[in-house]
Design a protein that fits this description.
disordered C terminus; single chain; eight-stranded mixed sheet
Length: about 450
């Protein structure tokens, strides 16, 4: 798949037209999406109109927006003017947005052509999308693509899109990135605006990119930044000092076993970092409990306004989680989040970078949780976020990088100190540049 930055450059050189790129993307969607379920809505006619306008602008001399004419799509819980905002749920089946939300505005302002809406889990809760049409993994369609940014990951991994925005409240960018063999970046709390502040006042969630390369991810971060001056892209060229790297392969949640292949990938990543001149050692073991994190997610989901008739349309796991959150106050979640953050900070210690598997196990098979009730589904699914969710609470930047494997994709997660997004991007770019040739499992 040609990167988004390369497509933008080809468009500026007039080697290809925006109309051609949109036609190619629509053809790819028609060829594969019936099997994968990456899209919940494709606005082909609107996209062609946008593409023609982009081509008209590209014919003129002067500066153009950075991704003028490049196709992408928006996650289903984000408003896009004139398109549905289903939030992955039958309860919102007939909701059409009259306006663009924050993400759609930024993407449109950067010149992207919006092809439609990508699938997500209901109210973005679960780390897989298993509604009426599950989002399937392009590498093995019998398995989930991850979630909640399921469709975005499936679309990029299948070559329908070159890059796509997602969101991450407990691993919802990094988990599907790991399952689908992509780069997924969750920025530090406050590095980008939080469009979900009404429902998420403590800032669990972040917007961020799913891409095939760190460079494309950095470019999309600049698009999503409120005042973009190319700072994320410029960060890739910085010289890094020797860093203190810690490796953790034991999942923080009791009862979650890390597959040998995933632990090996994390250790191999650490060896690659050591060869790049960084100091590597094992991280201390950290143990957490789902019961401590659960109220944070439950209150956020309970605050989504629904009519009684809509409530009855929700999936059992969503109804169960909303019930858990109704008695949780803002003071409660702030106290819980502060305590969990102190624990994560103590674990992180003086490290500059912590390396973990992104997910402890391969992607589950579609229907793997069908026999469970609402509570059982949520608790079983929570295991997929064992390595990712702690850093949503602490607000630290984290990236999932695809690591060479002989079977299904494996993701390795690198986490940095709060505010060290630029350093993390530079390190990830350096790793990605060497792992294909000098990496331990190339």
């Amino acid at each position: 798949m040609t990167s988004a930055l390369e497509l933008a450059e080809r468009l500026r050189r007039r080697e290809v037209s925006a109309v051609e790129l949109v036609q190619q993307a629509i053809a790819a969607i028609r060829a594969r999406d019936g099997e994968l379920g990456a899209f919940v809505e494709v606005a082909a006619r609107r996209a062609m109109l946008q593409a023609r306008r982009a081509d008209s602008l590209l014919k003129r001399r002067g500066e153009h927006t950075p991704f003028l004419g490049v196709p992408t799509a928006i996650k289903d819980h984000e408003p896009v003017r004139g398109l549905g905002t289903r939030m992955g749920s039958r309860a919102f089946k007939w909701v059409i947005s009259p306006i663009d939300g924050y993400v759609a505005k930024r993407v449109r302002n950067a010149g992207f052509v919006i092809l439609g809406k990508t699938s997500c889990s209901e109210l973005t809760i679960l780390p897989f999308a298993h509604g009426e049409r599950p989002a399937r993994n392009p590498h093995d369609p019998s398995r989930y693509a991850g979630g909640s940014s399921a469709g975005a990951a499936a679309a990029v991994a299948a070559g329908m899109l070159s890059v796509a925005p997602g969101s991450d409240g407990g691993g919802s960018i990094r988990i599907p990135a790991a399952f689908c063999g992509l780069v997924g970046f969750k920025p530090s709390r406050g590095a980008l605006p939080n469009p979900y502040g009404v429902f998420d006042p403590i800032g669990l969630s972040s917007i961020g990119p799913l891409a095939t390369s760190v460079r494309d991810a950095a470019a999309m971060l600049d698009v999503l930044a409120e005042r973009s001056h190319g700072s994320f892209m410029r960060a890739l060229d910085q010289t890094l000092p020797p860093l203190r790297v810690r490796v953790l392969v034991d999942a923080p949640l009791p009862g979650v076993a890390t597959a040998a292949s995933h632990a090996t990938a994390a250790h191999d990543c650490a060896l690659a970092l050591e060869r790049l001149g960084h100091t590597v050692s094992d991280a201390p073991r950290i143990t957490g409990e789902l019961e401590r994190f659960l109220p944070l997610m439950a209150r956020m989901i309970a605050r989504v306004p629904l009519l009684p008739i809509m409530e009855r349309s929700l999936e059992p796991s969503t109804r169960w989680l909303r019930a858990q959150g109704r008695g949780v106050t803002l003071g409660d979640v702030r106290a819980i989040a502060d305590g969990l953050t102190r624990d994560v900070d103590a674990f992180f210690g003086d490290a500059d970078i912590v390396v973990t598997p992104t997910v402890a196990q391969p992607p589950p098979h579609v229907g793997a949780f069908a026999s469970l009730d609402g509570e059982g589904t949520f608790r079983a699914a929570a295991a997929l976020g064992a390595f990712t969710a702690p850093f949503n609470v602490s607000g630290q930047p984290a990236v999932s990088l695809p690591w060479p494997s002989t079977g299904l994709p494996i993701g390795v997660q690198l986490v940095a100190r709060r505010g060290a997004d630029h350093r993390l991007l530079a390190l990830a770019a350096r790793l990605q540049s060497v792992v294909g040739t000098a990496g331990p499992r190339a």
